[in-house]
From TrEMBL:
This is Protein kinase domain-containing protein. The keyword Transmembrane helix applies. Mg(2+) binds at residues 148, 161. It comes from Rhynchospora breviuscula. Pfam families: PK_Tyr_Ser-Thr (PF07714).
Length: 328
């Protein structure tokens, strides 16, 4: 297993010391349990322990260690070390005290809901990490979701969980085993098992819709309706206010939200070829953030007209409804 020299190898006894005998659980997943710990220099870390009975987890462990040891970006969770001590497998990485974006949108930390500017900054930083993986590393994440976007003390975002990440070459359209999380899986990938970086773009588009609406990707109370379908239905009815998270209490720039929703719709188009690249996503999110920051500073938005001010939604009858925000 190729591991970067700067990554430390721990044994199982050292992990017991770091975690105080695995006393504090901070997360659970298909891989196993994540524990809080301290290194000797009192730096906080998260220790993800591989479930011994899971063969798939073993494979994901090896993949995550390889991936994290070879990629370096300020918005990717940093690998501190790993343990491969007999049957004991674990990944040690930096600790992000604010938990996940999922937690703050409607999970355990939903009481501290994030304002529009903070949400914009979070998804922008996550998009920059994914763009780095796609363009700088030739890598597809394959499990992009809001619970894999972790937040630091000042709500800086870092993308985590590269256990399913896969390198792609010039032939990105390779057939592999379907993977990902229900609600975030690219429908084209689901049908064809054809993987490319646009599968991550679709998943990220679902996150964008979560961020603007505050609801889960699959709404059980709505007869398991998917968030993409719900948002497009509301937009086709001309109901932008029903799309936006009510917890914003009107504190946002309408044009910033409009451009954001338009981007989310583009990212979640059925055909991969019709979706933007993550590099394009980064550019548009920067625009959205700049507009909102101007509002907060009391500066008027320049009177510019753009094609992105109109969203086209295809209806089930194959007709197209286009509409734009009201002028202010």
């Amino acid at each position: 297993m190729q591991i970067h020299n700067e990554v430390k190898k721990f044994n199982h006894e050292e992990l017991k010391d770091i975690t105080n005998n695995f006393i504090r659980t901070i997360g659970r997943g298909g891989f196993g349990i994540v524990y809080h710990g301290y290194l000797e220099n009192q730096i906080e870390v998260a220790v993800k322990v591989c479930s011994l009975e899971s063969t798939q987890a073993n494979k994901q462990f090896l993949a995550e260690v390889r991936s994290l040891s070879l990629v370096h970006h300020k918005n990717l969770v940093k690998l501190v070390g790993y343990c491969k001590d007999g049957a004991n497998l674990a990944v040690v990485y930096e600790y992000l005290p604010r938990g996940s974006l999922f937690d703050h949108l409607r999970g355990k930390d939903s009481s501290s809901s994030l304002n529009w500017r903070i949400r914009l900054n979070i998804v922008l930083e996550a998009a920059q990490a994914l763009d780095y993986l796609h363009t700088g590393c030739g890598m597809v994440h394959r499990d992009v979701k809001s619970s894999n976007i972790l937040l630091g003390q000042n709500f800086e975002a870092k993308v985590s969980d590269l256990g399913l990440a896969r390198m792609f070459s010039a032939d990105v359209n390779s057939i592999i085993t379907l993977s990902g999380t229900p609600g975030y899986i690219d429908p084209e990938y689901h049908l064809t098992f054809t993987l490319n970086e646009k599968s991550d773009v679709y998943s990220f588009g679902v996150i964008l819709m979560e961020v603007v609406t505050g609801v889960r990707p699959i709404l059980i109370a709505k007869e398991n309706i998917h968030i993409v379908k719900l948002v497009k239905q509301k937009l086709a009815q001309g109901s932008m206010e029903d799309v936006v998270d009510s917890r914003f209490d009107g504190e946002y720039d309408t044009h910033s939200v409009w451009k954001f929703v338009e981007l989310a719709v583009r990212c979640t188009r059925d055909e991969a070829a019709d979706r933007p690249t993550m590099a394009d996503v980064v550019v548009h999110l920067k625009d959205c953030l700049q507009i909102e920051e101007r509002r907060q500073k009391g500066k008027p938005e320049p009177n510019e007209k753009s094609d992105t001010n109109t969203i086209s939604i295809s209806t089930p009858q194959n007709s197209t409804v286009s509409f734009a925000p009201d002028s202010r």
